Amino acid sequence: MTNYTPQILRIKKKLQQAKDKDELFKVFGAGSHKYEINAPTSILEIDAFEQHYGIQLPKSFRCFVLNIGNGGRSYLNSGAGPFFGIYPFGENLDDLIHKNVELHLKKECTLHPHITESQWDELTDPFYEDDISDENYEELNGALYGGILPLGSQGCSFIHALVLNGPYKGMVVNLDRGELSPPKFSEDKNFLDWYERWLDEIISGKLITTCPSWFGYPKK
User: Fold this and answer.
1) Angle, alpha carbons 13-203-31 (nearest 5°)
2) Which of 7, 48, 65, 200 sits most deeply, having the most CB atoms within 10 A of its CB?
3) What percent of the chain is helix, strand and coil (3-state, nearest 5)?
4) Residue 56, in any domain of the structure
5) Which domain holds residue 109?
6) Total structural domains in the chain?
7) Of 213 and 217, more confident
């Protein structure tokens, strides 16, 4: 089992280093969260959440909310993190799945890093049929986003989310809730690696620009 303690300690130090480096809050979203995060959640809350939804959280995310923090002062009470931050644990679950979250959150995630534009269109075109019923829409919505936990807002229809089940469990994925573009999976293997890379890019100066700089959307 991976010991995340050294990484947790690094991240705590790097949060302060990032705040010191970006003292004018030039990184997109930093003016909202200000690199602040509330006290961690409790093991009792996590256990209750997992039992209620029939899931097991990825270990690295579990360590984050247990040891680093949970929620803050940003949009929807998000704590420090990429864009407008990381949602409070267990909240805003309907960001992707609009109904029956309990049914769909425990499903295996069907999205993957290699999905093509044409494959994405095949999955999402039925959403836009004129005669789609509410029941069919709900079924399609749950099938598309099943097994994915919303993590935070990037503004407009874009969010970052965490894969809960399946071969890519633990990875972070960027999603457009308008279904206009395919998912963009992070290069990182788990949540803590993704979060620490965000801090590293701030500390290095890469994300501190006069114009919005988009973490996790590399230019090709």
Assistant:
1) 90
2) 65
3) 40, 10, 50
4) yes
5) 5-203
6) 1
7) 217
- Residue 13 burial by CB count (10 A; 0-12/13-18/19+): exposed, middle or buried? exposed
Structure pTM? 0.96
What's the length of the chain?
220
Which pLDDT value is given to residue 213? 73
* Average pLDDT of the segment spanning 115-126: 94
**Tokens encoding 157:** 């229809």
Is residue 212 in a domain? no
Q: What is the DSSP string of 154-204?
A: EETTEEEEEE-SSTTTT-EEEEETT--S--EE-SSSSHHHHHHHHHHHHHT
SS3 call for 76: helix
DSSP 54: T
Sequence-distant (6+) residues with CB within 8 A of 7 are 192, 196
Q: What is the CA radius of gyration of the chain?
A: 17
What does the angle CA 167 – CA 171 – CA 172 come to, to the nearest 5 degrees?
A: 140
Per-residue pLDDT, 220? 52
d(CA 152, CA 91) in angstroms, rounded, equals 10
* Mean pLDDT across 174-202: 96
Cα(76)–Cα(192) distance, integer angstroms: 22
| pLDDT tens by residue, 72-99 | 999 999 999 999 999 999 999 999 998 9
The CATH number of the domain where 62 resides is what? 3.40.1580.10
Q: Mean pLDDT across the stretch 37-66?
A: 98
Distance CA 179, CA 122 (A): 11
Residue 219 has pLDDT above 70, yes or no: no
